[in-house]
What we know:
Layout: H1 2-22, H2 31-43, E1 50-51, H3 57-63, H4 69-82, H5 99-105, E2 109-110
Parallel strand pairs: 1-2
Helix pairs in contact: 3-4
Pfam families: HHH_3 (PF12836)
Signal peptide: 1-23
Protein name: Competence protein ComEA
Amino acid sequence: MRNGFLYSLVFALFTSASIAAIAAPVTVPTVEEKVTAVTEAAARSPNDKVDLNGADAATLQKQLSGVGEAKAKAIVAYRETNGPFASVDELLEVKGIGKAILDRNREKLEVN
């Protein structure tokens, strides 16, 4: 008899917890959050190019295909050691950056 009562209590507990989770209020983004998201998306439009001489490691990592944290830091370190890039092709001098990565990202890169 006690086991049946205990099982009923456990069942009721789990049932009420699942109903509470399902009935939780849904958060709807505000107009300000939507405007911010649209503005950020416009700022990241594919027409924008990444400046090798001005971009930080986080930007390089986010914007360039095949460039992770280590390669982005290597690009910044090369720039700090050797001065600004004279051309996009000079990126091949950075350790870890090969022709394939350069060709994949050539359209996204510029040197100012």
